[in-house]
Amino acid sequence: MFYRENGQFKTTYQSDQQIFAIPQDRWAILAIIAFAFIGIPLLVDEYLFRAILIPFLILSLAALGVNILVGYCGQITLGAGASMAVGAYAAYNFLIRVDGMPALAAILLGGIVAAAAGIVFGAPSLRVRGLYLAVATLAAQFFWDWAFLRIKWFTNNASSGSVSVADINLLGWTISSPTDKYLFCLGILVVFSLAAKNLVRGAIGRQWMAIRDMDVAATVIGIRPMYAKLSAFAVSSFYLGVAGALWGFVHLGSWEPAAFSIDRSFQLLFMVIIGGMGAIAGSFFGAAFIVVLPIFLNQMLALVGGWFGVEVSIALVSHIEIMVFGALIVFFLIVEPHGIARLWSTGREKLRLWPFPH
Amino acid sequence: MNLRKLAIAASVSAIGLSAALVSPAATAAEEQFFPVLAYRTGAYAPNGAPWANGFVDYMKLANVRGGVNGVKMIWEECETAYATDRGVECYERLKAKHGGATAVQPLSTGITFALTEKAPVDKIPVITAGYGRSESQNGAVFGWNFPLVGTYWSGADVLVQHIAKKEGGFDKLKGKKIALVYHDSPYGKEPIALLQERGKMHGFDVSLLPVAHPGVEQKATWLQIRQNKPDYVFLWGWGVMNSTAIKEAQATGYPREKMYGVWWSGAEPDVKDVGEGAKGYSALAMQHGAEPNSKVIKEVLASLHAKGQGTGPKEEVGQVLYMRGLISAMVQTEAVRVAQGRYGKGKRITGEQMRWGLENLNLDQKTLDALGFAGVMRPVHTTCIDHMGSGFARIHTWDGKKWNFSSDWYEADQKVLRPMVMLASAKYASEKKITPRTPEDCKK
Question: Where in the sequence is the domain holding B161, given as residue range(s)?
Answer without folding.
Answer: 153-289+396-412
